[in-house]
Design goal:
The structure holds two protein chains of two kinds. Chain A is of the alpha+beta class. Chain A has 17 helices and twelve strands. In chain A, strand 3 and strand 4 form a beta hairpin. In chain A, helix 1 packs across helix 13, helix 2 runs antiparallel to helix 11 and helix 2 packs antiparallel against helix 16. Chain A starts with a helix and ends with a helix. By secondary structure, chain B is of the alpha/beta class. Classes of the chains: A alpha+beta, B alpha/beta. The complex binds adenosine-5'-triphosphate (ATP) and magnesium ion. Magnesium ion binds next to helix 1 of chain B.
Chain lengths: 411, 220
């Protein structure tokens, strides 16, 4: 080992001293920064990942919507099937209804789905907590969990559905009776908004309730895995004649604003937390500078013994690098450990502050999600190691500039 | 002289002091032969340390020439193998123990092997510190520290040893012991010694005594 690396190690971990205080503090600063970065980017990434997964799992990869109603749903689907990359399609119609159970009303968004085709596009069964998708027929309904809870409906309960069509019926002085439906399933996606305001019925029932005839609102499309959703959407748009008056949008495009804000938020947090590492690096710099001043005569002696100024500089640079690497490794361990126990930690925290309700409502998730992307970790590691090494540069430069004669004279 | 270890001719050095120049050395000539020991005395401020720094190649003279064993190469690399220096303050590296401090002289040359470790142990034995080899400098007495510094200076088997008031920070008895050690080790290994001292008794033990006065040697 070159002497300057050896000496750097010795200065950080002196012979015979159990606990190198300066080293521990410097390493701790860096590792706290790294840990916070790992935790926050992972949790932010987790939110993003969950939300993306949920969007795809409930909307499909690409959604084709008409400007108005799509009269020829079957024709549209037949044409979509010929587009390369399209695996499956399923039609939908949607709209708000009033739902009542034992005179408790709710105003959920109702989705009319094609029971035979929907599973090929979105994994709906996965979200069914009670009952089953197979039992859904024209006289039944599947409720989202929170909604069911709030109106007190259970599997087998009867709910009454009134559609906006009632307004037209009243205008033409017809009698309108609400439709009575049996609850055959409860689903839960894990997303607050979806879980409290969506109900599923058959497409035919939805068409009937809204008086659509055979028309639909659009088609959800599943594409081959690995194919970029935006590319697929562009392909579909190219394949569809403008006269069809429908447009395909990828789930990313459809949720652009939302996803953009998510990404922006994550980037902002990253940069803010990066400052923790920068501040830690400043403390490393000042400690190393103090050490250079304190060791002026030893540095002079090293020169007298034949050490080159650049080797002396390397000795201090290496200390910065070593603090940086150790701190980064410690930070990664700390960060991932915290992430591993995150739900227990959050639980403890919410129990202390009695704020579980707030947390769920505000963050939309019942469990704290985490998704660590490799790119983020690499970025964090590179930033922290580079910044810590830079922190060693100024002290190194000071040390290299010391002339042995002057350094030795320094009493 | 074929076995001249150190040859200095007309060394001059002056320092800027305010707007005037302070002439510290005005033409110093010095020859030291292989294995010879020379003592330099002089009043405080007479330029002894300045001269030693020039001889060690740590500082450049304003005028004059310097040669180590006949060669004008007095660069950092050669210094590490050619000469050893002992200072009044011992300058041990505080994070290292005695043995590691001695080995540091060899580490800087990048040649640390079993032979080097054996040499360090041998030197520590010679300065009587085998028992103290794993002590940090803070755990050593002044005399012990200076003995470690002597061992370090001799680690690379230099041909010349420069010592600047090596006993300046030691009490008389300890100082005498260090000087005996220094002279003994140098004689044993045929290492030339230039010893700067204020102590007349120490100076008398060397082969040749010089006095620095008014910027050059006044013999006698
Ligand atoms: N870097 C410097 N800048 C200015 N003056 C200096 C410098 N180094 C030494 N001097 C001056 O040169 C003169 C000789 O200094 P030097 O240290 O060589 O004396 P010395 O003989 O070793 O004294 P002492 O016995 O007290 O150690 C002193 O007057 C000192 O003030
Ligand atoms: Mg002096």
């Amino acid at each position: 080992m070159p002497w300057y690396l050896y000496l750097a190690l010795k200065q950080l971990f002196p012979t015979g001293r159990k606990f190198p205080f300066f080293t521990a503090i410097s390493v701790l600063g860096v590792s706290l920064g790294v840990a916070l970065l790992v935790i926050s980017t992972s949790v932010m990434g987790g939110f993003g990942y969950e939300i993306r997964r949920m969007i795809v799992d409930t909307q499909g990869d690409v959604q084709v919507r008409g400007q108005g109603l799509v009269e020829d749903g079957a024709g549209l689907q037949a044409r979509l099937a010929t587009v390369p990359g399209v695996v499956a399609t399923t039609p939908f119609a949607e709209g708000v209804v009033m739902l009542q159970h034992e005179r408790k009303p709710a105003f959920p968004a109702m989705q009319g789905i094609d029971v035979n085709r929907v599973s090929k596009v979105v994994p709906l069964e996965r979200f069914i907590r009670a009952g089953s998708l197979d039992e859904l027929d024209d006289d039944s309904i599947i409720l989202s969990s929170k909604l069911a809870l709030s109106i007190g409906a259970r599997l087998g309960s009867k709910v009454e559905v009134t559609s906006p069509l009632v307004v037209e019926k009243i205008k033409s002085e017809e009698i309108y009776l609400p439709r009575e439906l049996r609850v055959v399933g409860i689903f839960e996606v894990g997303h607050q908004q979806l879980d409290s305001s969506v109900v599923l019925v058959t497409l035919r029932l939805m068409q009937e309730l809204y008086g659509l005839g055979t028309a639909i609102h659009g088609v959800n499309v599943k594409i081959v895995p690995g194919l970029d959703a935006d590319v697929a959407a562009a392909r579909i748009n190219a394949a569809l004649p403008p006269a069809a008056r429908v447009t395909a949008r990828s789930w990313m495009e459809a949720n652009q604003d939302f996803l953009f804000i998510l990404q922006l938020e994550k980037n902002m947090i990253f940069f803010l937390l990066l400052f923790i590492i920068i501040v830690a690096a400043f403390s490393v710099t000042s400690s190393l500078l103090i050490s250079v001043v304190r060791k002026t005569r030893e540095i002079g002696l090293l020169g007298a013994l034949g050490g080159q100024p650049r080797q002396v500089a390397a000795c201090f640079c290496f200390q910065g690098l070593l603090i940086g690497t150790t701190g980064t490794v410690a930070g990664l361990v700390l960060g991932f450990t915290t992430l591993y126990f995150r739900n227990a930690l959050v639980e403890g925290f919410t129990r202390l502050t009695a704020s579980e309700e707030v947390l769920t409502r505000f963050y939309q998730f019942s469990q704290l999600p985490a998704h660590t992307s490799k790119g983020d970790v690499v970025l964090i590691v590179v930033c922290s190691v580079v910044i810590s090494t830079l922190a060693g540069l100024l002290p190194a430069w000071r040390a290299a500039r010391l002339k042995p004669v002057e350094a030795l004279r320094n009493e | 002289m074929s076995d001249a270890i150190l040859t200095a001719r007309g060394l001059r050095k002056s320092y800027a002091s305010g707007d005037r120049r302070l002439d510290v050395l005005n033409g110093v000539d010095l020859d030291v032969a292989k294995g010879e020991s020379v003592s330099i005395r002089g009043e405080s401020g007479s330029g002894k340390s300045t001269l030693l720094q020039l001889l060690a190649g740590l500082d450049a003279p304003d005028a004059g020439t310097l040669a180590w064993a006949g060669s004008a190469d007095t660069g950092t690399k050669r210094r590490a193998t050619f000469l050893g220096i002992v200072f009044q303050s011992f300058y041990l590296i505080p994070e290292l123990n005695a043995r590691e401090n001695v080995l540091m002289a060899r580490r800087i040359l990048g040649r640390l092997d079993a032979a080097a470790r054996a040499r360090a142990d041998e030197l520590l034995a010679k300065v009587g510190l085998t028992e103290r080899a794993t002590h940090l400098s803070s755990q050593l007495s002044g005399g012990e520290r200076q003995r470690v510094a002597v061992a370090r200076a001799l680690m690379n088997s230099p041909q010349l040893l420069l010592a600047d008031e090596p006993t300046g920070n030691l009490d008389e008895t300890t100082g005498d012991a260090v000087i005996e050690l220094l002279l003994g080790l140098c004689a044993e290994s045929q290492t030339a010694l230039v010893l700067v001292t204020h102590n007349a008794a120490h100076a008398r033990k060397t082969h040749r005594q010089l006095f620095l006065r008014g910027g050059s040697f006044a013999h006698g």
